[in-house]
């Protein structure tokens, strides 16, 4: 891993990035491995497109395994430590039937 990077724990959920442009100003399909970072960690930059988190890779581990996803959006309803993942990323670490899974992750 990146060596000494902080590890976060929270809930993993999934959403449809294909419904519209994310906070980072980019468009993505549901099969791409992308994620929305929780609002407390994403913060409230004047221009969210310029957020330092946009485009950062996260390594996420859930009940079924580990995947890597790129931050492309902000999740307003997520608590600190939570990630909202595209189906492409979520399916590698958990079952959509569960809806919400325990995750650990780091940048």
UniProtKB/TrEMBL annotation:
**Which CDD domains does the UniProt entry name for this protein?**
DPBB_RlpA_EXP_N-like
Point to the regions of Polar residues compositional bias: 15-26
Q: Which UniProt keywords apply?
A: Signal
Q: Name one Pfam family in it.
A: DPBB_1
User: Which stretches are annotated as coiled coil?
Assistant: none
The domain of life is Eukaryota
Residues of the region (Disordered) are 1-30
User: For the RlpA-like protein double-psi beta-barrel domain, which residue ranges apply?
Assistant: 51-104
Q: Which InterPro entries match?
A: Expansin_CellWall, RlpA-like_DPBB, RlpA-like_sf
- Keyword Signal listed: yes
- What is the protein's name according to its record? RlpA-like double-psi beta-barrel-protein domain-containing protein-containing protein
